[in-house]
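Methods: example folding runs. The two proteins below were folded one after another, and each record is reproduced exactly as written to the output file, sequence line first and structure-token line second.
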Amino acid sequence: MKYNLEDGEKLIHFARDNIEHFLTKQKKFDVPKDLKEKFSDKGGAFVTLNTYSIKNGNPLRGCIGYILPVFPLWETVHKVSISSAVDDPRFSRVKLDEMDDITIEISILSVPEKIIVSDPQEYLKKIVVGRDGLIVSKGAHRGLLLPQVPIEHNRNWDVLTFLQQTCQKAWLGLDAWKDLEETTIESFTAIIFEETSPRGPVREKAIGE
């Protein structure tokens, strides 16, 4: 994955325009031709909305994404930016006037890879907090946590806690990661761009800040 800050700025501005256009007109923003050409490679991505005014605690206001590179990246962002604002079942729909107090973050994902182990304790050595995102799958259950989750907002999780929380996200028991026969653990990395303030400058996010 090779995306620079200019790319991140284009994607963030596109996501915001798309969300605000939808909240105003109830339809998606028309995608400019140059954006389609620039981001034509297929890519998985998540769009995260955070409430800027919340300094303590979790400011999350919505987060939706596609794990796998099913669509061109522009189309992925086109779809999930809207979904992050209106379809996250954990939250009420974002209102237009809230966008003045919301920052947008885009995580562009690498293709997930299964972590191969012969003993579940090996996961504790193979997973790197701050580098890896995790996906836990068992049967119809699947849970994903982005690489930034275990270290943001003063969480400071270790690998064990990260595994347990990803299992919980999948609606599984905390120790489901130990079941090598039925539980699959995948990891991925992400390039992350974020607004530093609502409609403010965009930066590439260094995980751990």
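Second run, written to the same file directly after the first:
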Amino acid sequence: MAKRFYYGGQAVIEGVMMRGKKSMVTVVRRPNGELAIDVQPLPNIYTGWARRAPFLRGIIVLIEALVLGIKSLLYSANMSLEEEEGEISGGLVWALVGAAIALAVVLFFIAPLFLTKLFAPFITSAIVFNLIEGGLRLLIFIAYLALIGLVPELKRVFSYHGAEHKAVNAYEEGMPLEPEAVRVFNTAHVRCGTSFLLAVLVIAILVFSLVGLPALWLMVLSRIVLIPVIAALGYEFTYFGASHIRSRFARILIAPGLWLQKLTTREPDESQLEVALVALKKVVELDQPEEVSQASS
């Protein structure tokens, strides 16, 4: 029996991107009210064995989220402004991915380290140092989410984020993908990227504690080179929680991530819910020929 595939995606500007087994679908609401639909095949790196291999899959998922996310965002920006769609070059995508990674590393890893170094004369324990650094990292992350949530344009993106979660939650419960059946579902989801990032920031405290208190340049280097390791562990933690959702222990573990999603999701309106449902229906439809073929073989 084939292993169940879990659909998911992300919110974009006035739209939603959904990822399937072999393709991703981005649906955007144009200013005139019509829906623009973009279907893109997924490269083999996002569908092959590495995407399913424990620990390695966490790194692949991180790259996938950045690359596919930026592609979808660029497409949605064009469509929501009614501009002609242009070809997105690989160089531009990777430049934007590099900029996004650099900003995240500086804001959530390097800045907390230098802030904690201000207290270094009073700290002799690596564990205490990393607890303080980790606490600052979490505070910066939560403050960042709270602040961007005040931007009107991003409030709409967060509503589409909520619509995406409602649609996936309904699908996984076997409900019809219709607005009246989907709107009652929660805007939080156990496999959300927000929960994944929270897991990464908490696990970073444990990993960096093993580094100890070396010279500053080594500490800075460790905050960069260990990110793939932390991302891999963070993904496995999130995957475990989602796979054992009926376990009380797992529900306790994932509860902080679900709570944090209150900062990154909003209740969607009917038009936003429609966009998420169109995207999910389309990506499921594209996977159906493969499922029929497997069943008949």
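Comment on the second run: The radius of gyration is 20 Å.
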